[in-house]
């Protein structure tokens, strides 16, 4: 578990750690126009390869592929740290995303292999806590490395942690069962990768290119057409990347949609609340992380408790409904944000939001893993992980677009000042003192409105959770290791 947790920490950190380093990277590598691709390339690659890693793990054994994906991630991290121009860095980030996507989905699937169904919720809860902590710590580390050392250390720091991860994993991870040789579903893999690419490009660049631009409209239409081909292509495949049974399983479909909705809210909150604190309250990046501690504490505490409560499968629906309802409550509270919202009140809002965020993601994954046969755990984990990744990209993109448009609307009629750019809220400090407070209030209200616009998505997820009926497909209460007769597997020890 220590090896798996370190892997999740590495992969999740690299999706956030570069955010505060991007301006310095653009300056050093002279690539301001295309700097957004440094983050988008990682997200695109990690999302696109998720279904493939999951299926290959089912076919060839997850331990071996876990070591391969982690090694690829570390090699790509070196390439990122040594990049001499922006194309080199973007290419290395693509490879890093390929490795990181494998680390994430194979980690979740390995938990399904080595932990009994009754204990999965507890162990999966650890990973949810790692996600939340990484989302807060990542930007802080990126800023520290950029200011005190070099932005290259945002990538090179992966090497010592990754070396320990590989050493532990190679020594203690159990070998998992390997299926008989089968043809790899290349058509399905390419199709799902193309769909993921279309979704990530639309959500990442819709605001920049224009939502009604020919490029975005064309990408949307192409993605819809490709999505319509998934079922017929996978029906004909001998060993489909996405088994059609996954698309007809009520638990898998509903859990994926709930995970999509929860991640849309979670990543919008984690990304934009520090921005709100730094601009409206004027705190540093480091202090914004301190202000977010109630959210992280709520997330970690709820993950820990939920892991214990979810030992009985019949409790999963109640946990999901409660968690999604708390997400709705958190968004409603954050929707009231203003420039005068006090620290104590903010801490309460953050705590409620954190508790709700912590109750959903890993319980969704546990419900799915408990509902499919052991041989499909990798594919099922990949489906949920894929949906959650798309939800995160969707939520962040929509929130960013709504925040920008609402902020610009609220600034209408405000006298401009030299150096102030509405597209860069951090330049509010350049406004004269007489209008600065008005602009700060406009940004705070625009941020709150963005959270309110996410409510329909999360409310729909709450409704879907009501209709989710988690069940356990396998009769055995413990996973079956490679070469072990069914029924003889031992129960995993408590954490």
Description:
- The chain has 495 residues and is mostly helical.
- It contains 22 helices and no strands.
- The protein has helices spanning 2-13, 22-29, 37-48, 50-60, 62-82, 86-114, 117-148, 153-156, 158-172, 186-209, 214-228, 230-236, 244-248, 250-280, 285-291, 293-309, 316-334, 343-358, 361-369, 377-410, 433-453, 455-467.
- Helix 16 (293-309) packs parallel to helix 18 and helix 19 (361-369) packs antiparallel against helix 20 (377-410).
- 53% of the residues are buried.
- Residues 474-495 have low confidence and may be disordered.
Concise description?
The protein is mainly alpha-helical. Helices cover 73% and strands 0% of the residues.
Q: What attributes characterize this protein structure?
A:
495 residues; 73% helix; mainly alpha; globular
Q: C-alpha Rg, in Å?
A: 22 Å
Number of helices: 22
The helix-and-strand class reads mainly alpha
Strand content: under 5%
Summarize the main sheet.
none
Shape assignment: globular
Q: Would you report the number of β strands? A: 0
What is the string of helix and strand elements? HHHHHHHHHHHHHHHHHHHHHH
| Mean of pLDDT | 78
Poorly predicted ranges: 474-495
Helix share, percent: over 70%
Ends apart, CA distance between termini: 10 Å
